[in-house]
Write a structure and sequence with these properties.
111 residues; alpha+beta; two-stranded antiparallel ribbon; 14% strand
Amino acid sequence: MFHKQVEERELGKDAFLYNVFFALYWMAKEGVANKKFFSLLNLFCITGFRKKDLFPYKSPSTIREMALTLGSVLKEYILCQVRKVQSFGLMIDEVTDIAVLEQLVMLVQFW
């Protein structure tokens, strides 16, 4: 009985973490500021998704790490898809942000 409860809790934890990452992905796709993330989690709790205790992390560095993880996974997925096609278009540009940090931006288009 105890083992079954532990397994159910772990499954619930996995589902909750999936939803947390999906919420962060949605925020990035919609251009919503990272600092609104915890407000969104609070909304989940208000609307009945009461597993907030499964995600005890509250620091901005946590959100940054999660965003970097999502970016890494998406980059690998896109690269895997590009490797399968016969041709693709690539546009590369170097930009400087307000903090004078240079970043290389690459856009790829394929079918």
